[in-house]
């Protein structure tokens, strides 16, 4: 809190400049001097061109309303506008990271496990990626094909990967802080993120940025951007953008228990090497690089066009294309395979991903008095997962040979969406009414293609097996929906919005959703607003049909995820998934207590039932029988049946999320000293478990650890304070962010004494019922950026994110596994990468 106090004191200290200028102007002797200063300040202000925070709020928005010409500050529901300049000043090269850095309600996992670390999904208001709807220019965006496979805050999610969009094509982002399933359909529970792209018919913008995590000595990355527009005929436009991004691994080296050569009395050393395995002394002291970010190369492209065809009729379209090659180091302590002359294995998981979308539409006016919009969007994501620098031990033992690279499987996810929207305004007894209605058809498909035989036969390679043909397949579903949305203005001060939506699914339950919102403007400086709505999220095809087998090298155990729709899962008690359902309520106010100071405050509550979580975990011989019946070959590797498990997904939990959002901005005019744009944003968020489902064997579906993933792994609060000072050709941006506490229940690991027991019975070490509570205490991050306008068209910037190299709190030794992470990787708090230094240059032509 000391840094917060210093920031507020510094802000307050700026006000004497304003008051002293006013006193000078009141002095007759100084009027001439004051006028000269004012003229000079005016000239400087014209030079200090930047997007004011209030300009964002005064921008016309299209999210959360079916009306036209509604500004963010006038909207019935809270809408935040984040400009492209704000995203650029985050210093981040990825869209998801930039949002996390600049918007307090959005967080991300510090590091994903396995393949989910290769994609990037955001979380809003503490809920999962699947509970946030992402739109691009108001149209539903397809999600990634990749599903998060391992337990954690994002388990089983397959949200939209924002990083597969060309970030330099973003004009601004509109965030609706409200449940809006009645307006947009499935997923709009925590809120809606609408990405508005550039559509200019002129200009060319070029930029490049490079940097590295200096304190780690790794994480080198750079990005090149280009976008521009030109006219299509006399009255149309085309806007194109391309982006190239490359990054190396950012590695946070840490101690590896298996290589230290010492351990506490009673430590579990069966997987240790130094001092335990013959001939391994040469590895003494070597550190683990388990905690690292992916190595990635990514190319993205986007195109927008629009062309009037006749009076009041326009043809428009959009295309996006992205390709990614990413690799994640799956660190293993040295794993000896004498038959192959291997003294260690270093598996590298790879993802070759193609993401695409194409949109074509017609919009016009005066169709029986209605504005209309007819559109079709087809998009998809193909993800090819492989693993290299590893061996198939079963094949090696059977044949004496094993390849070192395996294609595990390919996932394909596509979405075809067709929309017809109509709206018009009219009056009922002099009361203005805006009416909108329409329909949508969506075809979802999901495909799993099995890997090469070596990836799944004989137990598969160390780390994880490929997907066999029995698990492969293609699944479809159709969704038909209709909505109506009406806004009434009974008086000049009162606005009421009523929306309803019906959705029919061919593979799950149908839903009916409604929303009632109201706003009352007491004056032009103070207004109250509130919303109550119900919503839903339909289970994804990935959640219903994905399967996976993980092999825990050296332990003789396996873990299998079975599709909830499969006979194998049903033999363990699985049932078909239902939609998650929510009830959202929010209330707040907007005010301008003094001219230029804008404040918005909203409280909210989200009751979410039938949450899709891991459930039905079964251990032992029954689990292995179910895994075998599904087609996985576990005979060579599953020698420890008691430690092996099988699980599936279920509608197993209900939660309540409560929170508070506060936002404020003020533009401080310092005359000849430039301008300072001040922005403060605060999110307070808490999720509690209200119901924990029971498995077929009478045990709770969620244990204390998995409960923590969905309730306390997200910061309790997040504050972002930003000051942008512009003077002449210079601009300085400083951002102070506070991430609140996170709490997770950690597994007691190898340094836990073997004699320690769990109060509920059994050994404490590796217990699935007793856990060690670990708190990541609050952290402050300081970001600094300094820019200079070299010419009227060229701007150069240097900056540091996380100036003081703040890291998460370290785990105690009894919660750190051999060769594992020294940090809690499931905490959605500060990143582990530390200080990031960068430089950027941009040119507008």
Automatic annotation (TrEMBL):
<dbReference type="Pfam" id="PF00593">
    <property type="entry name" value="TonB_dep_Rec_b-barrel"/>
</dbReference>
<keyword id="KW-0472">Membrane</keyword>
<feature type="signal peptide">
    <location>
        <begin position="1"/>
        <end position="24"/>
    </location>
</feature>
<dbReference type="InterPro" id="IPR036942">
    <property type="entry name" value="Beta-barrel_TonB_sf"/>
</dbReference>
<dbReference type="InterPro" id="IPR039426">
    <property type="entry name" value="TonB-dep_rcpt-like"/>
</dbReference>
<keyword id="KW-0732">Signal</keyword>
<keyword id="KW-1134">Transmembrane beta strand</keyword>
<dbReference type="InterPro" id="IPR012910">
    <property type="entry name" value="Plug_dom"/>
</dbReference>
<feature type="domain" description="TonB-dependent receptor-like beta-barrel">
    <location>
        <begin position="356"/>
        <end position="803"/>
    </location>
</feature>
<keyword id="KW-0812">Transmembrane</keyword>
<feature type="domain" description="TonB-dependent receptor plug">
    <location>
        <begin position="73"/>
        <end position="192"/>
    </location>
</feature>
<dbReference type="InterPro" id="IPR037066">
    <property type="entry name" value="Plug_dom_sf"/>
</dbReference>
<protein>
    <recommendedName>
        <fullName>TonB-dependent receptor</fullName>
    </recommendedName>
</protein>
<keyword id="KW-0798">TonB box</keyword>
<comment type="similarity">
    <text>Belongs to the TonB-dependent receptor family.</text>
</comment>
<dbReference type="Pfam" id="PF07715">
    <property type="entry name" value="Plug"/>
</dbReference>
<dbReference type="InterPro" id="IPR000531">
    <property type="entry name" value="Beta-barrel_TonB"/>
</dbReference>
<keyword id="KW-0998">Cell outer membrane</keyword>
<keyword id="KW-0813">Transport</keyword>
């Amino acid at each position: 809190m000391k840094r917060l106090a210093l920031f507020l004191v510094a802000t307050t200290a700026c006000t004497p400049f304003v008051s002293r200028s006013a006193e000078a102007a009141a002095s007759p002797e100084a009027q001439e001097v004051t006028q000269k200063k004012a003229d000079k300040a005016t000239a400087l202000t014209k030079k200090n061109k930047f997007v004011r925070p209030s300009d964002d709020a005064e921008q016309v928005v299209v999210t959360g309303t079916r009306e036209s010409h509604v500004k963010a500050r006038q909207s019935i529901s809270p809408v935040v506008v984040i400009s492209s300049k704000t995203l650029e000043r985050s210093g981040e090269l990825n869209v998801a990271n930039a949002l996390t850095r600049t918007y307090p309600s959005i967080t991300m996992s510090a590091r994903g496990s396995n393949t989910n670390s290769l994609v990037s999904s955001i979380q809003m208001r503490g809920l999962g990626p699947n509970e946030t709807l992402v739109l691009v220019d108001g149209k539903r965006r397809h999600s990634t094909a990749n599903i998060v496979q391992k337990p954690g805050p994002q388990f089983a999610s397959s949200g939209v990967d924002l990083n597969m969009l060309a970030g330099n094509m973003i004009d601004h982002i509109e965030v609706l802080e409200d449940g809006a399933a009645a307006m947009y359909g499935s997923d709009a529970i925590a809120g809606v993120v609408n990405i508005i792209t550039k559509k200019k018919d002129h200009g060319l913008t070029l930029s490049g940025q490079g940097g590295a995590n200096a304190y780690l000595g790794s994480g080198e990355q750079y990005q090149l951007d280009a976008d521009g527009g030109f006219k299509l005929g006399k009255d149309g436009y085309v806007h194109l953008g391309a982006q190239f991004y490359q990054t190396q691994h950012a590695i946070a080296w840490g101690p590896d228990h298996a290589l230290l050569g010492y351990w506490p009395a009673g430590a579990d050393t069966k997987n240790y090497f130094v001092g335990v395995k013959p001939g391994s002394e040469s590895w003494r002291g070597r550190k683990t690089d388990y905690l690292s970010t992916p190595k990635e190369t990514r190319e993205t492209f986007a195109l927008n066009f629009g062309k009037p065809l006749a009076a009041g009729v326009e043809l428009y379209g959009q295309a996006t294309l992205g390709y990614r090659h990413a690799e994640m180091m799956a660190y293993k302590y040295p794993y000896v395979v004498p038959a192959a002359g291997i003294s260690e294995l270093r598996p590298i998981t790879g993802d070759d991903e193609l993401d695409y979308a194409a949109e074509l539409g017609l919009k016009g006016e005066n169709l029986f008095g209605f504005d209309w919009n007819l559109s079709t969007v087809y998009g998809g994501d193909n993800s090819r997962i492989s693993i290299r620098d590893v061996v198939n031990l079963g094949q090696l033992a059977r044949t004496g040979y094993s390849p070192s690279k395996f294609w595990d499987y390919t996932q394909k996810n596509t979405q075809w969406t067709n929309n017809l929207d109509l709206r018009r305004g009219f009056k009922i007894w002099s009361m203005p009414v805006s009416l909108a209605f329409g329909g949508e058809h969506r075809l979802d498909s999901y495909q799993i293609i099995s890997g090469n035989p070596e990836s799944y036969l004989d137990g598969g390679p160390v780390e994880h097996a490929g997907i066999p043909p029995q698990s492969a397949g293609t699944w479809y579903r159709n969704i038909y929906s209709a909505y109506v949305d009406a806004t009434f203005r009974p008086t000049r001060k009162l606005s009421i919005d009523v929306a309803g939506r019906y959705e029919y699914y061919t593979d799950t339950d149908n839903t009916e959703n409604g929303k009632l919102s109201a706003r009352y403007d007491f004056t032009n400086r103070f207004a109250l607003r509130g919303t109550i709505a119900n919503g839903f999220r339909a289970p994804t095809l990935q959640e219903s049909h994905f399967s996976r087998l993980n092999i825990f090298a050296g332990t003789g155990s396996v873990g299998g995820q079975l599709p909830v729709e499969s006979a194998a899962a049903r033999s363990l008690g699985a049932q078909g998934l239902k939609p998650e359902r929510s009830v959202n309520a929010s209330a707040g106010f907007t005010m301008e207590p003094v001219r230029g100071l804008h404040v918005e405050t909203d409280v909210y509550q989200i009751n979410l039932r039938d949450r899709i979580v891991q459930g039905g975990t079964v251990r032992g011989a029954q689990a292995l029988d179910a895994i075998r019946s599904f087609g996985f070959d576990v005979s060579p590797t599953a020698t420890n049946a008691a430690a092996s498990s099988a699980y599936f997904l279920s509608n197993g939990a209900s939660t309540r999320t409560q929170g508070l959002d506060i936002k404020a901005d003020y533009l401080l005019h310092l005359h000849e000293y430039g301008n300072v744009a001040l922005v403060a944003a605060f999110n307070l968020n808490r999720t509690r478990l209200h119901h924990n489902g029971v498995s077929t064997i009478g045990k709770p579906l969620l244990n204390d650890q998995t409960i923590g993933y969905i309730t306390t792994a997200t910061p309790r609060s997040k504050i972002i304070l930003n000051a942008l000072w512009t003077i002449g050709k210079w601009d300085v941006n400083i951002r102070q962010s506070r991430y609140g506490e996170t709490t997770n229940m950690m597994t007691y690991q190898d340094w836990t004494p073997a004699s320690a027991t769990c109060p509920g019975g059994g050994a404490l070490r590796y217990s699935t019922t007793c856990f060690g509570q670990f708190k990541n205490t609050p952290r402050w991050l300081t970001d600094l950026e300094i820019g200079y306008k070299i010419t009227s068209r060229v701007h150069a910037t240097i900056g540091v994110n996380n100036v003081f190299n703040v890291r998460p709190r370290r785990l105690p030794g009894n919660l750190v596994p051999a060769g594992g992470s020294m940090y809690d990787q499931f905490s959605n708090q500060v990143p582990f990468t530390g200080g990031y230094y960068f430089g950027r240059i941009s040119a507008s032509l």
